[in-house]
């Protein structure tokens, strides 16, 4: 039997992939394509500027709520004007995909500010705000719209047109019926031969069943007008309905509808599917466990058991039961906070060691080996300004990460929380800024693989009892090899801390973290929170820039410090913050250069040539010249092929080849905010 082990190896490898897919039913596709954006006309309603900061609070509250239920409503009835908000993710999205979809929708919706209302439909979620209570609004109002795709290839064949229309109609009817009995959500496929029609319906959670039915029926009537188009989307005031000849929803949502089976037949089909799935899971699990024992006995090093081998690394592997017990069953009283990628709980191991356990929002369906490589990578980081990852657990019903427990609070609470904040001396602030810079520099240059955090902000900086800052929450972090100059990716992070090339084009380099650090450094020095929803003139970045041009850059420094700070040092910190937030990424220093400047007061800081880039500049009303940013208008300076030289002997000139790298990255995404 010399070939049996090789055969088993391939069978087990395929089975393991299938098994991982089955235990993680939601695919990693947040469906962030824009279906429709609508802003209330400003001419119809008198704009009250007080609406803008309330928008921020509503979005933050919706974010916290939608992480739990994939649906949220919020109303703020303080002083005029009132503001109401609503967010809904389609039920088939995973929690992490819901988060990504919501964040993308929030970024899109900010273009409506300062309009008194607006809504955005993405293919996976919906977000809306208004200055009136729209929760009881008629679902048949004038806001209902539909969008049709391109025609199919069957437009000249009358029989095929009728057959296609019949299948679309059946899919619409089926998904409407399913939605009523399935909490407002349904997904179906009508299939015959090679032709398949996919449909998905989603009602907002606050609708009564009969209103949901009415809404989807109305949406179905609109979609039938799209025929024989290959796709149609209907977006009503209370629901979303879509059909397509291409699959667009996640496997976990699928309910098969084949040629209109009877109710009894449906029951048997579903029962057979469930029974087969259960037997398949046990069979595959048994094969996997049997092969793992075989691999352990053989002591081989084949690639197939690198995945279970990672599970068995003692220094990284934690038992789920141990972590559950350490956190008191994830007792809400032990909850430390909600990070970008999951909830964090305080725990105590049997040996008395204090830990922080993060319950991951995202699943590990994509290559398990890559997940463990990521764990190994982060756990290998040994730096005083980076929270230490102790290990992980995937043996239980959810994935967990285990970190060293940091006993104090995050920097945002220290600076801005009225109940938890504390006054920091200038020396403490400077040491915190330097520590953050050293931590980011280590991520960028201190390991074999470059790590870009993507979400550097005060709330992701923990401070211990000695006020030593530690970078935390790597839920959005990306890594790539040192020879890579950039990656093109979807935008994630926090408005107000996003670099322009990343916010507008998804062009990610380490300079995105440099920009975020610049904002944080200025916030810490001035104890003023940067807000994306204030006018440029009112922002802390603009205030520092304005005073810099007037040769009194330390004017915005926290007034509580009085004269108890080193003016030259404070001036250098603020000037460095301006340099880090320059629009052109090549004008920003690297983080290692930032650390060198902070440590060495003799080094001359390059002169910032432009005002700092502010995310708020993208939120101008659509009828102004700044509401539509094209590649030519925004990026004209970024296409320089002559190289860009930063005015300092410490910084090398940037060669034309590096500028070319950015041009390539620039072309990777359509640049348009409209």
Automatic annotation (TrEMBL):
Signal peptide: 1-28
Subcellular location(s) per record: Membrane
GO CC field: membrane
Segments forming domain Protein kinase: 330-603
Gene3D superfamilies reported in the protein's UniProt record: Gnk2 domain, C-X8-C-X2-C motif, Phosphorylase Kinase, domain 1, Transferase(Phosphotransferase) domain 1
Segments traversing the membrane: 267-291
Keyword tags: ATP-binding, Glycoprotein, Kinase, Membrane, Nucleotide-binding, Phosphoprotein, Receptor, Repeat, Serine/threonine-protein kinase, Signal, Transferase, Transmembrane, Transmembrane helix
Annotated positions binding ATP: 358
CDD domains given in the database record: Gnk2-like
A Pfam short name: Pkinase
Reaction(s) catalysed (UniProt annotation): L-threonyl-[protein] + ATP = O-phospho-L-threonyl-[protein] + ADP + H(+); L-seryl-[protein] + ATP = O-phospho-L-seryl-[protein] + ADP + H(+)
SUPFAM superfamilies linked: Protein kinase-like (PK-like)
Domain of life of the native organism: Eukaryota
Example of a GO MF term: ATP binding
UniProt keyword rRNA-binding, yes or no: no
Record domain Gnk2-homologous: where: 33-134, 142-248
Protein name from the UniProt record: Cysteine-rich receptor-like protein kinase 42
Species in which this protein is naturally found: Solanum bulbocastanum (Wild potato)
């Amino acid at each position: 039997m010399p070939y049996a082990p090789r055969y088993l190896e391939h069978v087990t490898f395929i089975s393991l992939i299938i098994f991982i897919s089955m235990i993680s039913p939601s695919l990693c596709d947040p469906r962030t394509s824009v279906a429709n954006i609508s802003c209330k006309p400003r001419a119809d309603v008198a704009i009250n500027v007080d609406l803008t900061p309330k928008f921020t609070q509503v979005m933050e509250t919706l974010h916290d709520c939608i992480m739990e239920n994939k649906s949220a409503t919020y109303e703020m009835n303080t002083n005029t004007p009132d503001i109401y908000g609503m967010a809904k993710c389609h039920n088939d999205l995973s929690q992490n995909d819901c988060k990504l979809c919501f964040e993308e929708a929030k970024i899109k919706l900010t273009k409506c500010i300062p309009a008194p209302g607006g809504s955005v439909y993405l293919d996976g979620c919906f977000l809306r705000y208004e200055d009136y209570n729209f929760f009881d609004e008629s679902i048949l109002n004038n806001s209902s719209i539909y969008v049709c795709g391109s025609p199919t290839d069957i437009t000249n064949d009358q029989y095929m047109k009728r057959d296609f229309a019949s299948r679309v109609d059946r899919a619409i009817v089926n998904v409407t019926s399913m939605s009523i009995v399935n909490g407002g959500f349904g997904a179906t496929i009508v299939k015959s031969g090679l032709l398949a029609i996919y449909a998905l319906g989603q009602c907002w959670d606050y609708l009564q069943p009969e209103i949901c039915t009415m809404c989807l029926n109305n949406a179905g009537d609109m979609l039938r007008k799209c025929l024989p188009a290959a796709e149609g989307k209907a977006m009503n005031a209370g629901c979303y309905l879509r059909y397509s000849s291409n699959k667009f929803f996640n496997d976990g949502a699928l309910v098969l509808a084949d040629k209109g089976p009877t109710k009894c037949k449906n029951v048997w089909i579903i029962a057979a599917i469930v029974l087969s799935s259960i037997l398949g899971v046990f069979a595959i699990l048994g094969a996997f466990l049997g092969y793992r024992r075989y691999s352990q006995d053989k002591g081989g090093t084949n690639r197939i058991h690198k995945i279970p081998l990672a599970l068995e690394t003692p220094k990284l592997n934690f038992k789920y039961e141990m972590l559950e017990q350490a956190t008191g069953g994830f007792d809400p009283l032990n909850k430390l906070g909600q990070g970008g990628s999951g909830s964090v709980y305080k725990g105590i191991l049997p040996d008395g060691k204090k830990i922080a356990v993060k319950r991951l929002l995202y699943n590990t369906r994509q290559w398990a080996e890559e997940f463990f490589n990521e764990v190994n990578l982060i756990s290998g980081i040994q730096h005083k300004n980076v929270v230490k990852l102790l290990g992980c657990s995937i043996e239980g019903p959810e994935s967990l990460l285990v970190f060293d427990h940091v006993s104090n609070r995050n920097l945002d609470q220290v600076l801005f929380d009225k109940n938890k904040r504390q006054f920091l001396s200038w020396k403490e602030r400077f040491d915190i800024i330097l520590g953050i810079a050293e931590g980011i520099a280590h991520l960028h240059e201190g390991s074999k693989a470059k790590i870009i955090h993507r979400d550097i902000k005060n709330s992701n900086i923990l401070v211990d009892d000695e006020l030593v800052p530690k970078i935390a929450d790597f839920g959005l972090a990306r890594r790539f090899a040192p020879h890579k100059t950039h990656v093109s990716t979807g935008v994630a992070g926090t408005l107000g801390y996003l670099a322009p090339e990343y916010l507008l084009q998804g062009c990610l380099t380490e300079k995105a973290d440099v920009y975020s650090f610049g904002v944080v450094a200025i916030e810490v020095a001035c104890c003023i929170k940067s807000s994306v929803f204030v006018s440029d003139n009112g922002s802390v970045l603009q205030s520092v820039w304005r005073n810099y041009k007037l040769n009194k850059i330390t004017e915005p420094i926290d007034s509580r410090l009085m004269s108890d700070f080193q003016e030259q040092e404070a001036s250098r910190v603020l000037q460095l913050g301006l340099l880090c937030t320059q629009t052109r990424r090549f004008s920003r220093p690297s983080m290692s250069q930032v650390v060198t400047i902070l440590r060495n007061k003799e080094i001359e800081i390059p002169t910032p040539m432009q005002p700092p880039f502010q995310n708020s500049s993208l939120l101008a009303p659509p009828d102004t010249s700044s509401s539509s940013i094209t590649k030519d208008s925004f990026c004209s300076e970024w296409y320089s092929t002559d190289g860009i030289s930063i005015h300092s002997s410490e910084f090398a000139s940037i060669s034309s080849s590096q500028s070319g790298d950015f041009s390539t990255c620039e072309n990777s995404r359509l640049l348009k905010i409209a």
